[in-house]
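Researcher:
Attend to token order:
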Amino acid sequence: MPKAFSSHYHWNSAILNLPKTDSDKVSTPVPSKLFYTYNRAIHGFSVILSPEELEALKKMPRCITAYTNHTLHADTIRTTDFLSLSKAGGLWQASNYCTYAIIGVIDSGVWPVSASFKDDGMGEIPRRWKWTYEPSVQFKSLMYNRKLIGARYFNKGVLSQDLNISFVYNSPRDETGHGTHITSIVARNYIRGVSYFGYAKGTTRGTAPCARLAVYKVTWLRGGSLTSDVIVGTNQALADGVDIISMSMSFQGVLSYEDPITSFAAMEKGVLVSSLVGNRGSNLMTVVGNLWSLTVGASTIGRQLAGSLTLDNGKTIIGWSLFPRRAFLNVSLVYNETLTGCNSPTLLSEFANNVIVVCFVGPRINNQISTVIEPKIIGDIFISTDKREEYRIPGVTIKPMETPTVINYAKSTID
């Protein structure tokens, strides 16, 4: 930065005193608006420009390039069994469970009152930590501790697209749940007696259970996440002194040389960036990789929650169900080929009272699940290989190969 300027903001503002365009040939330019300056992740800024101003900026001697403010998409990861982390030895013991590491999570914020972020058993915060408290909505200073040692939020990029956006929490508090989910995977403290409605009861922990967490909220329920906010979040994380940056989001359809700007800067400063590459499946190219970062492919969990369907003839079919309670329903099973799409509330309302319906899964299973929430229908059977969906009424997913057994039984019980 030239000595004539007191800050990067003033320097960048001077740069944006752009030369005039041919005003006789173009419409009135949009007034430029500088909303971020960067001095660690990159040397640059984010600004709103008219097309004419942008072209003038690109012609300036020290302008390397200019990128559009792209939208990012949230991703997620699995736990770390495949890393063979064990209490018996290895990386956990060698690093004292990462007790001196500070991990910056760039995502949708954090739910600070979650048990995942209690500081039980943790020592003092490393003295090298540079963060200072910033008061904000629904995020009081007492919510910070020796585990959650910092949280910031950035949304000027989102606001540059729409000044009328109303945020649920204009603070680091999580609006979508994704950031809390990722943050707990990264460094959740030990929590005993955890289960999914009684399934798989035990103790849960994060990948680095004793690491410190600093959260940078750049993803918003209304407005999504944009490049400019992600860059300033990374810029601030580097300034605060994090050791590792976790970024569970990715660009789609962005040129490879536009994507890894901040990960390159972090690499130069000795900060590891860990990011996801997806695994959206069935195409020749299923991942979205990043240069200069540790990339992790998405996976699935090593368990399934079984659900059983028992017919009156004694036949039991084992499928999958995320319905959280036990359900014993001694009612009629209805199969109607016209209605198996389960996508018409009007048609489904024609069923008799208290029935279980058979549905073939289409491209929008969530819509189908919502549609069968009809007073007369108290259960559903979905024919699919998708094991992921949660049911709001008693329901089970069975394999297509089991379909004839169910259909033949339903037809045989018609009065």
